[in-house]
Design goal:
The structure holds two protein chains of two kinds. By secondary structure, chain A is α/β, with parallel strands linked by helices. Chain A has helices at 49-56, 83-93, 101-104, 111-122, 127-140, 146-149, 159-171, 189-206, 217-223, 241-246, 251-258, 298-302, 318-330, and strands at 7-18, 21-33, 38-42, 65-73, 76-77, 94-97, 177-181, 209-213, 226-231, 234-240, 308-310, 313-315. Chain A has 13 helices and twelve strands. Chain A is globular. By secondary structure, chain B is α/β, with parallel strands linked by helices. Chain B has two domains: 31-127 and 209-311, P-loop containing nucleotide triphosphate hydrolases (Rossmann fold), CATH 3.40.50.300; 136-207, no CATH class. Chain B is globular. Classes of the chains: A alpha/beta, B alpha/beta.
Chain lengths: 331, 358
């Protein structure tokens, strides 16, 4: 991999200072996204996946702050830029799609106004040129009769159509990176499939890198090229989507996959992970997953595992370290 | 009054035979719940003055429009569909939170709509209970868990000594795999999954036979969802419960159901045994939904997106409501509303299936 990844995150740490001490919401996470690639970030609520997304674009709500690590966009460090400079990068090079399209759109302006304003702020197109571009974009994201719809307000669009508008808004200045945080969670299955297909197609065409944050493994399976599994603010496993889903290495990923009901596989009981994810205040020592892990052994209780490379997958689990040593001892 | 007496008689007979029968064979022929031609219309017209001044018409939403199905004892019947298709309205109608505009809901042969007063409803009420989607909104934050669970016991005067009630609450908590000591706590001390367990314990407090579950796992993470689904299956086996399960998640429905009904714009387009509906779906809408299921196996199958969106129920299309999105639609579909015809173990409402085109 000689090319510079579009997004590279090294040892990112997000913390919240509270009166009772500092809570670490994202703990030492490293990953990268290449051009034209979709990286899925999965995990249960509270795993820190959205927090990672907001930290990358430097929009953490105070008192949350980046407590360490570096974020690079096209090889340029962006986590320590002054606010105004970062704002320009966010507008021009990073597109964002959030779960609820209504919160990303201003209800008081027409859809066209919002698109044109964004385009004009970040390019030197004229008013007319920007309107033409806005119309093209709306047609591209599959909004029928765009000429009429462009002068309508967000409330006149249905949920699925609104999300299309938000995608158009995110892509209107050809960003390098698109961060999509649960873009389909509020939508029905049938609309979900349309939006996913659209997002994937557009990003491939525009050559953008995508960070797709979701709790839905089905969406990941279809959309992502690689997937990062998060647990309690840490990375459990990162690897090609096929491998992670079908031959999960980390016991957590394995448990998570087993607990998803699947059409066509009739089982009486779903595999279940006992207990629940620890709160930020009570993350255990060693591997954060050890109290729920059926394969935990002494080392898991005491030492936190690093990412260990296993083929194309990186996994943070001591099981693989031991295996590695055994293989080395024999070889 | 005659109805009421008949119910009481039915009930005492069923108590002796029904529960045990459902547990040993699991295949009771007599349906516990039968819904026939059920409809619920909501008046969403603008105020009278606006109508007069601006010449606007009355507007009626046909949230549920002629739905019929039956649930055998000890089985799970699921309703699936996209948002706005009326599945939650059916749930609310069945437990009596809404009064139907038309149609019948029979519980062991007694028509719920014929019971007019609270006193008449009360004996039936405790036998059917509901679990709601949002475990954060459905538990009173100012009550201790023990009081929340004891509420149905007190409301129906099933027990009157406080120590007995406390013991029963402890049992219920253990039944949903919580600790009896959790009764002392308040809802905010629990996670979403634990709260949903508390909701289940509360629903079980009055010894119901029938539970209506409206998206009970939609607000939960997958691993927690698996715990709740397993618990619900265990309880069904232990207590011989019958479920009406409402969900938009097809995989969850496949896992939990014996029978599945697919709803579209207030109508049931297809229902039957789960294996049949999922294995060989007949209605074009059902097929579209099946194709839209995210594929975890990644066999290379491209998910086929369903074209278009659900039309507004205030102004539904003519004929078959699905015809504007249906690839097989012809003139008859746009003119004439299809009747349900028997297919296999269930029914399908589609002209194409009836004519053998699909």
């Amino acid at each position: 991999m000689a090319q510079t990844p579009v997004l590279e995150v090294r040892n990112l740490r997000v913390e919240f200072p509270t009166r009772k001490g500092t809570l670490v919401a994202v703990d030492d996470i490293s990953f990268h996204v290449n051009e034209g690639e979709v990286l899925g970030v999965v995990g249960e609520s509270g795993a820190g996946k959205s927090m990672t997304g907001t930290a990358v674009i430097n929009l953490l709500e105070p008192p949350g702050r980046i407590g360490g690590g570096e974020v690079y966009l096209d090889g340029r460090r962006i986590d320590n830029l002054p606010y105004e400079q970062m704002r320009r990068i966010r507008g021009r090079q990073i597109g964002m799609v959030f779960q609820d399209p209504l919160t990303s759109l201003n209800p008081l302006y027409t859809v066209g106004r919002q698109l044109i304003e964004t385009i004009r702020t970040h390019t030197d197109l004229s008013e007319q040129g920007a309107r033409k571009r806005a119309l093209e974009l709306l047609a591209e994201v599959g909004i029928p009769s765009a000429e009429r719809r462009i002068d309508q307000y967000p409330h006149q669009f249905s949920g699925g159509m609104r999300q299309r508008v938000v995608i158009a808004l995110a892509l209107c200045v050809n960003p390098r990176l698109v961060i999509a945080d649960e873009p389909t969670t509020a939508l029905d299955v049938s609309i979900q499939a349309q939006i996913i297909a659209l997002l994937k197609k557009l990003c491939h065409e525009h050559g953008a890198a995508v960070m797709l944050i979701t709790h839905d493994m089905g969406v990941i399976a279809e959309t992502a090229d690689r997937v990062a599994v998060m647990y309690a603010g840490r990375l459990a496993e990162v690897g090609p989507v096929q491998q992670v889903i079908q031959q999960a290495k980390h016991p957590y990923t394995e448990g998570l996959m087993g607990s998803i009901p699947k059409v066509g596989h009739h089982t009486d009981r779903l595999a279940q992970i006992e207990g629940s994810m620890p709160r930020l205040t009570e993350i255990p020592n060693g591997c954060a997953y050890h109290p729920r892990c059926p394969k935990a052994f002494a080392r898991c209780f005491a030492e936190r595992p690093d990412l260990i490379t296993q083929g194309a997958t990186d996994v943070s689990c001591w099981l693989y370290d031991e295996e590695l040593q055994r293989v080395e001892a024999h070889g | 009054m005659a109805d009421f007496a008949a119910t009481a008689l039915d009930k005492s007979q069923n108590r002796q035979t029904g529960g045990a029968g459902a547990m040993e064979s699991g295949a009771a022929a007599q349906p516990l719940v039968r819904v026939e031609g059920l409809a619920k219309y909501f008046d969403v017209s603008p105020p009278l003055l606006t109508r007069v001044l601006e010449g606007q018409k009355k507007a009626i939403v046909r949230a549920v429009d002629g739905v019929s199905f039956a649930i055998p004892q000890g089985k799970t019947f699921s309703l699936v569909g996209e948002s706005g298709c009326g599945k939650s309205t059916v749930a609310r109608l069945v437990v009596g939170l809404y009064r139907p505009t038309r149609g019948h809901i029979e519980f062991e042969g007694t028509d719920l709509a014929s019971l007019r007063t609270r006193a008449q409803m009360a004996p039936l009420r405790k036998r059917l209970q509901m679990i709601f989607q949002d475990p954060y909104a459905s538990l009173n934050p100012r009550w201790r868990v023990a009081d929340i669970i004891a509420e149905p016991i007190r409301a129906h005067k099933l027990m009157d000594d406080d120590r007995g009630i406390l013991r029963r609450v402890g049992e219920l908590l253990e039944q949903v795999r919580l600790s009896p000591r959790d009764g002392e706590k308040f809802p905010h001390e629990f996670s979403g999954g634990q709260r949903q367990r508390i909701s289940i314990a509360r629903a079980l407090a009055s010894n119901p036979e029938f539970l209506v579950c409206d998206e009970p796992t939609s607000a939960l993470d997958v691993s927690v969802q698996a715990q709740i689904l397993n618990l619900m299956k265990d309880l069904q086996r232990e207590l011989g419960l019958t479920y009406l399960f409402i969900s938009h998640d097809l995989a969850v429905v496949y896992h939990i159901s014996d029978y599945v009904g697919v709803m579209y714009l207030g109508r049931l387009v297809e229902w039957g045994e789960a294996q049949q509906v999922f294995g060989s779906p007949r209605h074009p809408y059902t097929r579209m939904l099946m194709d839209a299921i995210p594929d975890l196996e990644m066999t290379g199958r491209q998910r086929i997106p369903v074209a278009g969106e659900v039309p507004s129920p205030i102004d539904p299309p003519s004929g078959c409501y699905f015809h504007p999105r249906c690839p097989f639609a012809n003139e008859r579909c746009s003119a004439e509303s299809p009747m349900a015809i028997p297919v296999g173990s269930g029914e399908v409402a589609c002209h194409g299936v009836e004519e053998g085109r699909i």
